[in-house]
Design goal:
Largest sheet: 2 strands, antiparallel
Oligomer: single chain
Number of strands: 2
Order of helices and strands: EEHHHH
Strand order of the largest sheet: 1-2
Strand content: under 5%
Distance between the termini: 22 Å
Low-confidence stretches: 16-22
Structural class: mainly alpha
Shape: elongated
Length: about 170
């Protein structure tokens, strides 16, 4: 039996609420992943919005300032939301693949499973636009996950950060 309830403990710790073997830290991982991806993409969106806003033309200086601020806010939130949605899809897709194909993929390493989840996420993210954008999305998803995973795991090996990328 994969999922069995733990016997109750006398002190009543919060660990009793979790199923054994399910991974009680998955919620924390998904929260961290979505939050960091939103923040990082919003920072990129800030700079992109400043660039696009500066190109906008306005007759008065005050209107130009409002236009720049509006463009920065709109671009930062758009980038952040898109990134958070993609990272949420990545986490959910990775967990779904692990649960459905558990026996088939148990011999593969964590990096291979991350790349497969990234490929599937990229394909799903662009699936409503047609087959070509779906293929491009799959390639970009695989490339992005590979780059991020190797970067984070390399920083972990150097002792700079304390976590590894796992689905």
């Amino acid at each position: 039996e994969k999922f069995t309830l733990r016997p109750p403990r006398p002190q009543g710790s919060k660990n009793d609420l979790y199923l054994e073997g399910y991974g009680k830290n998955w919620g924390e991982k998904i929260t961290f992943t979505v939050g960091v991806s939103y923040f990082a993409a919003a920072i990129v969106g800030l700079f992109a919005g400043a660039y696009y806003g500066k190109q906008a033309s306005a007759k008065h200086r005050q209107l130009k300032g409002y236009r720049i601020a509006s463009t920065i806010a709109r671009t930062a939130s758009r980038y952040g939301n898109a990134s958070a949605a993609a990272s949420l899809m990545f986490c959910l897709t990775g967990k779904f693949v692990d649960l459905v194909f558990e026996e088939e993929i148990q011999d593969f390493g964590q990096m291979t499973r991350n790349i497969a989840a990234g490929t599937l996420t990229g394909a799903l993210y662009k699936s409503t636009l047609g087959i070509r954008p779906m293929i491009v999305g799959a390639i970009i998803g695989a490339g992005a996950v590979t780059t991020i995973a190797y970067s984070l795991n390399g920083l972990n090996d150097m002792g700079i950060i304390k976590f590894r990328m796992e689905v």
